[in-house]
Amino acid sequence: MKFFKTSVIALTFLTGSLSSFAQTAEEIVSKHLTAIGGESKWKTINTLKLTGAMSAQGMEMPITLTQVHNKAMRMDITIMDMANYQILTKTEGWVYFPIQQQQKPEPMTADQVKDAQDQLDIQDELVDYKAKGSKIEFLGKDDMEGTEVFKVKLVNKEGKEKTLFFDIANYYLIREIDKVKADGKEQEMATNFSNFQKLPEGIVMPMSIETPMGPMTIKAVEVNPKVDENIFKPAN
Asked: In the chain, is it the N or the C terminus that has fewer CB atoms within a 10 Å radius of its CB?
């Protein structure tokens, strides 16, 4: 009987602790969304066009990303005066990189298309994350190169997992580590975000992004521009 009572107390404490962690994760996400303009503003974004440049191997490569929310995206990147692109839609995808001696656009595999679908969400993956089938978990505090951060694990409905690092001072997302599969092995891929700017539309976005491929600088952002959906069809 005494054991039973002790077990109940222990379970009550454990349940309370888990609820506290869950609530803490929700509070962090809520404050993050407020910091970047609020869910209501992000929900008004249906198309987005980013123009900038990526640096790698001593070269600056112009890059343009055009997106239609939950429908399609296209990345154009110029390397050594050669136009390359990648297209992703809900059902198909193509890659055309003549810089790699490709003679024509090559279709992405069904698994590649499925695995990349979360990239079509341009309204921030944490907006309505519960309705999207994602789950979050508070992982505690940490120090990221001198910056104190909150760590939150996000797992989407497909089971893809990433760790998000939020600056405690302003709740901006300054790093994410994605778990990805390459050559049949699970690897971690880190991306850092900085130089946050508030756009006229009221949302806040990072203008500097450190990717595994190299640093990228966003020079211009168009919110809700008209997009000719023919650009999401392969052509060379």
From this structure: N
